[in-house]
Amino acid sequence: MRLLAVFVAAALIFVGVWLDYRSQMARAGSQPLDAEGIAPAPAESPAPAPELTGYRADLGHLPDAPLLGFVEVPEGPFLMGSDPGIDTLAYDVERWSAAQPQGVVDVPAFLVGRSEVTVAQFAAFVEAAGREVDPQALAEPPLHPVSFVSWPDALAYCRWLEELLRESPATPAELRALLADGWRVTLPSEAQWEKAARGGDGRIFPWGNELRRDKANFATGRLAPVGEMACTECPYGLSDMSGNVWEWTRSPWQPYPYDEADDREGLESDPLWVMRGGSFADPVRNVRAAIRGAAGPDVRRQFIGFRMVIARR
Amino acid sequence: MATSRRKRTPRPGATPPLGRRPSGPGAKLGSQAPDLRRVFLFPLVLTLGLLLLSLAPRVADNARLTFAFLAAVAGLLVWQGVLFARLSRAGATRGFRVVLRPQHYLQALVQLTVFAVWGWYWRPVYDFAGLLLAQLIFAYAFDMLLAWSRGERYVLGFGPFPIIFSTNLFLWFTDDWFYLQFLMVAAGFLGKAFVQWRREGRRTHIFNPSAFSLGLFSLVLIATGTSDLTWGQDIATTLTFVPAIYLLLFGLGLVVMYFFRVTLVSGFAAAALFGLSALYAAATGVPYFIDSEIPAAVFLGLHLLVTDPSTSPRTRTGKAIFGALYGAGVFGLFWSLEAVGAPTFYDKLLCVPLLNLSVPLIDRFVRSLQSRPRIRRLTEVRWATANLVHMAVWTTFFAAMTATGRTDGLHRGDMLPFWQEACEEGRAGACERLVQIEASYCADNAGWACNELGAHYVEGRIVEPDAELALGFFARACEAQFQAGCVNLLDPSVVSRAPPRPLDLRLLLRQGGLNLIDMPEPALYERACSHGWQFACERLGMEVR
Description:
The complex is a heterodimer of chains A (313) and B (545). Chain A is of the alpha+beta class.
């Protein structure tokens, strides 16, 4: 009888502790790390974005437009880098080489997002993939550019979107065909970004050589919704190529002349990834089309976001 | 309820008991009440002390820790209230007998020395001092009330010290789960009081109290996969922060051996572990344990956990068998725990209760040996200084182990390049161990280790290929500033590798947890070179040792 009482008491204590453990785990919204030391997806997902007019909720809130807001940049050469003779604000790192200020780079055709990736689009990814991100990334209004995202966060989003576009029956046939042909959703290379920003004529700003405050959100100290400043004068009609947020590229920081074949060199140096375009917090000098910034891959800041390209691998 | 029932012969060093029942012809029931009240002041003061400790900032700042303290205080108060009322009604009283046993205070002093030195190199130990004190207070009050509830006088001495210290040298719960620590302490004392048998004509507890509660809680933690509620893993690894930890433990162990004649237990346990490790290494070409031939925490266990004289055999042969079984048990448990994917730090804890249970079997076996005249002659060799001789042999053995680099010296199990090479050569279990070590360093944010893991999952040579897992590891490597991880994340179809960066080396060369953050780069590369990193030797213009 006494033994039975001991067992019952022990069992009751065990059940009590176990219930406490379960409730604590549920409250923390987490579970113990797995064997690889990686935390599983958070239990709580971000609140779903409200229905946004002009965007496709079934396709991760991409624009309801032909090619889902992607714009074609045709194959061809363009002038990369800055000529201080024309652009007096140019930095040394934009100079092609000691012998020449600019270089000609031939870029195959690709598609580029008309706008920066928005908070709503990124939230759809976080919700679907259960990815843990900096909560500040989802704190801005849905149509603001997403920020507080690291370089791996941006790549993970691209991978997720590619999978979504491959699998969804709602994906336009042309995009589906490109993906089936080996094209990938990814970040732009430095050359792709610069060509998309300034076209082939080497202009200083995406809209031309003159400073225009109505064309870019810079030096304002606040984020603006994507596409708020339309740019019909820009070569491919892209918005926010200057200002709003710096945009991650898939190019590691390397001195010019630019050569994509160098991307796997210097693996022992500090990892810095190029970002382009300047932000709402930058002066005019930093929102020129040839501006080159760089940050560590783990950096998450309010002034750093990204846009996507669809390009052949 | 009866009062103290057994007459005890006063021992030297024992003070007159407090709170004895008046027994003269004029004694009245009413006159006993003040005595009982006086006696119950002790647990009450201890309980109030515990309540006072709950006001300490660390406790007050954590609601769950505060709850643990208040629950312990409430439990003790209710218990003493009920007991007091019952004894008052029955006209009974209770008392103390002060007995200061060297096996308690000497063990406690040795354990306290370990805490003091360990805390010097790992700050959380000192930060934990308040919670250790709380457990001691709780243990005294709990043990006292338990004795009185069982109708016994409480033997006041240093008994709870080695139990609490010994428990805490191996396992603490985190602050959020500290009520389980109080439960674990309670379980130890309950086990000591209730799980008993008759041995050599007197009733005695079966289990070493701390080992009983540690074993019981370890089993539950393993079964429920909740080891993350404890500091167990950190405790097991941070002992190696102490320079020359083996030498320190050896020295402290000699004190215990000298006074309590447990040399055979510790010595045979160590010899069994060294021997089995050596056999394994000879057979497979890889070391059995990672950080040493005997992990420091196990070395601590074989000196301070398994050496309780009252729960181990009394004969010399029995002690030797007991020690050897502990060594073999730890060896087997390490393998078993690793095989089932459980944390291996439980290896030294789980086998002690089983060994305690096996003591009658060992005694019987020794008796059967001694019934054979030849063997009896061997086992009956008695030198007046037998323990000193054992200690001398043990010292020589330890010196030999140290001289051959099997204790505090550099251990090849700690060298990642060794495991890479062993894996390449296909030595038994080497690839699994390599992945395991890299996973542990990756969890510490060593980008190099994460990139290597990602590469393994892409290549699929030593693990099943898993593209998703590979991307996860590359992303982690990239965020940890390892550029090869970033380029692999961008395009995992071509795997890039690079040698560890200084940031990685500061993690990879810690040998369990040394702080290398401020180590100058030349010294870091020198250390890397001595750990078998060829690129570091080349950078220094040195030959690989």
